[in-house]
Fold this sequence. Notes:
Helix content: over 70%
Structural class: mainly alpha
Mean pLDDT: 90
Number of domains: 1
Oligomer: single chain
Radius of gyration: 18 Å
Shape: globular
Amino acid sequence: MRxxxxxxQFLTIIPLPFSVxxxxxxxGRSLAYFPLAGLTLGALLVGLNHVxxxxxPRGIVDLLLVTALTIVTGxxxxxxxxxxxxxxAARGDRERFLTVLKDSHIGAAGAIGLVLALLLKYEALLHIxxxxxxxxxxxxxxxxxxxxxxxxxxxxxxxxxxxxxxxxNGAGWVQLLLATMTTLAASLLLLGTRGLWVFVTACLxxxxxxxxxxxxxxxxxxxxxxxxxxxxxxxxxxxxxxLSGQKVFSL
Length: 251
């Protein structure tokens, strides 16, 4: 359970009432528990949804849920999303891209990326049928944290500093196998056969992102991992919405 708590400490700002020892390679080893940390975030959202729904309309509740997830995760992955959007907008070579990633300021592309990402999450969650909402609240944080594992294991480092390199050095195929088993089992339990389609989509999308960044800059960074995580949250919600058969727009 120590590695699970390390995963919780890294992925959230949730305070623990005790200290957790973390060795040199424990961050990488904790990747096996990232999906469980995602399910923990999902449980928090489900509980919050139940309480808020007693007194507030769904539109406000869903906006508060997206806000709560953003706060609890410390805006960590959204920061990566913004940095990568700025890097892509710079349209330079590898060194230019990496330089933009290290810049702490958010440019126009990063700001637009943040707004669009949050709007897409909110709109997708809002339109998911009430009968599937609880499953969706568990599933999209789960799939995004699994995507982080899939991005890291076997990847090359685009640079030698940053948190991305710490995880890559400590992670192995055992962590990926355990994370895959946990994610697939939870997806099937939550969504049945629909969960398989969501899982396969997340795997293919994450693999495509990983391959593209390896071609572009020769590897990945912590910001790219955060970028992949945020996009997987959106993709998962959109997939659940599409598979629900709910029509978002009608003419």
